[in-house]
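re: ur question from earlier - yeah i can do the single chain one, its not a big deal. heres the input i used so u can compare w yours
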Amino acid sequence: MRALFAASALLAISSAQHNIYTPHPDGQQIREPGPYGQDCTPSSGDYPDKCPKVGMVKESTHGKIECIHNFDCCLCGEMICGPDCTDIICNGDSGCFGVKNIKMIGDKTYGASLNCNGDMSCQGTYVDGINIGELYCTGDGSCAYSKFNLVCIIQHGMGCELQCVGDNSCEGDPTDPRKIGYYNVKNSHGMSCSHDSCRTATFQLTQNVGGAVSCGGQESCFAADITINNIENVFCGGFDACGEANMLIMNPQNRFYISCTGPRGCQFTTIEIMVTNPQIDFIESIDCMSADACKGASITVYKQRASAANPLRIGAITCGAAGSCAGTVFDFGPHVIVEHCECARGGCDGMMGIPGCTAPPTIAAPPAKAAPAPAPATTATPVV
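and the output i got, formated as tokens:
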């Protein structure tokens, strides 16, 4: 019983240190509240030394702000990096936790890097910035429940990829208006999401410069709301990776493809592909390759002012496993042509929108050949 009580107390203490608003959900008193109501109480052995007083302004030194200890910068009221900012580094766990006034003005040649490497290091932050070169949310929960309004610098024809690679790193919670994740990044280069990292959050990447939407972990983009343009592909490779997500894809690159390979990877997902550029004329494939991969999904493809002389062709739609396109609704605009459609057995039950796309016919086995009748018995004639 004593061990159970100690464990419960430890859980209460650890959970109390990671709340981005007050009052505390379970009524506990926060010993060191930050300027935005977040819990900045350090654990034993943590010695944060940035912004020792609540609400202080932290400015960059030699182009950098470094919050390297646990809970460093948590008490800051404002963080200003720039002009000619090179880095904001939040390596300590809960390092920049809950700071809702972070400004970045990056170096015009190389851009500024936002590094949220500690667990929960940038959780609940509001970040505004221009000339951004790199975006790293690598710590678990590092950029969750945050609002980013950023403009990336373009180098060698590429913007900056939003890398939400820590578990739960960029997730949102639409049931709580204080915890909605919203990420508006201009001149982005796609986005990468790992385990649970982008689920139920909103991503506005409407001035995107190449790259992909890569949702490789379990529930990595589950129920996310993603608006993006000019991408190479969408990859949903984890279990429920893009399930129930809403994606609006404007003017993807020629030979764009969607790959739903994780189990239930795109189940009940809504995908709209809208083409307004007349030079875009070919989508390589829409692949639903695992069990229930695109079950119940709605996939719309439309090209503005398409014609017989300027159609939009889709090379292949493949439903490669049982249930992979069960109940899926495909909605194609005029002069959107599907060149090839293939269904595995049981893969397209109830699918709508592609007439004639059915499972391969069952080939009956050839009848067995009758065994030859046995030769009649003969009686040997005795030799006299």
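The helical segments are 2-16. not sure if urs matches, ping me
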